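Before a colleague's protein record goes any further, I have to sign it off. Alongside the sequence sits a line of tokens, each denoting a local backbone shape. I want your independent view on whether this chain really folds as the tokens say. Where you disagree with what is written, explain briefly why. This is what I was given:
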Amino acid sequence: MWKRIFGVGEGTLPFAGSGTVFALLRWTQADCGAATCCIDIVRAPLPGEPRDRLPFVPTGGERLLHGTGWPQVRMVLEAIDRIERQRIDPARIDSAYWREVAERLRVGAAIHAYAPSRHHAWQARRATS
């Protein structure tokens, strides 16, 4: 998976183009040490598709998942790690999985693993459509 860390003042994020899925992790820290963070899994929209406005993403995107606070961010990063350990690119999985993860975060439930069988079924559906 392609990774790059952008620092403060670097402006906007470049990415490959329409349909690209990426994670946007943001955090701030106050002088007193308090920190806040959030993570979004975003799909770059195809031309003419609706889009959400997102910081640092000039074209906006379809927000598949939004998590706030370190516990939720950690859960999403762990889900990404589990997918990568299966040698599957998290940017190329069924976007419905990210929506399911978002719903599980919302209700405080454990995140189910993304199974290789699900991935193969999703790829087969894409190939026939």
The helical segments are 70-85, 95-107, 116-128. The chain has a mean pLDDT of 85. The CA atoms of residues 109 and 117 lie 22 Å apart. The longest helix spans residues 70-85.
